Amino acid sequence: MNDVNALQKLGFRDREARILAELMKNMWMTVDEIANRTGIKRPHVYVILNDLQRRGFIVKSAGRPSKYALNPDLELFKKLAVRKIEEINESIETLAKTLSSRRLKSGMAMYSDAQLFIKNLLDHLNRVSMRAWASVPTPLVLDINLPKLLRNLALKGIEVRLIIGDFDYFKNRHHDYRFLRYVEPLPPFILFFLDDTVYLGLIYNSRVVYGFVVYDEKLVQNLEKYFEHIWSEDYAKTLYRVKARYPRPY
Description:
It is built from ten helices and ten strands. It has 250 residues and is of the alpha+beta class. It folds into two domains: 71 residues, Winged helix-like DNA-binding domain superfamily/Winged helix DNA-binding domain (Arc Repressor Mutant, subunit A, Orthogonal Bundle); 140 residues, 2-Layer Sandwich (Endonuclease, Chain A), CATH 3.30.870.10. A seven-stranded mixed sheet has the order 4-10-9-8-5-6-7, with helices on both faces. It has a three-stranded antiparallel sheet with strand order 1-3-2. A hairpin with a 6-residue loop joins strand 2 and strand 3. Helix 1 crosses helix 2. It is rod-shaped.
């Protein structure tokens, strides 16, 4: 990346960046010298120099002909970088609010990039507004502390449920029993039901290899029935099985 490109990334327009780049190489240049080096016409050079001087990026000599030099204060350019980052973050927040307010009416998206699928899943999980229901073979499959994340969501009023097939993990999580259920056999997938969007990831060799994101009204209804079944009709059977294998309070 050359100086002109670097300056443009900080927000300077093309002509501004070209003039500043010349002043970085040559101290105290006249308008004619700048015009000859950059190929920018003299009237435009005057206008740009006056604006850059007003903003503090260059200084002007007192003699005749007037000469210009770059202000070497790096903090001025750092402030531009910080402002640029803030603008980008504001843009991302605006887009996130717009996208989160619009749900997919119907359809399915397939992700062959498992990391991108997981990233989108976790992004949605962190901004979920109504419910976060999940079924995983073990919470460790996502390399995050899933129960802790769900506990924090529950404290915010989000309806949380987690089905797991890892008994060794389950038996040591008594403080999570209010939203945790154990099932057999081990689910060969991860399933997240976030608000009205379904995330399904296929597992191979203990890691997610493909992902699907689905919104479908019929699927939503079926998943609601599935989770209700685990939380109600299967509850007594699960309770009996867990107590028989691990005699501590459920």
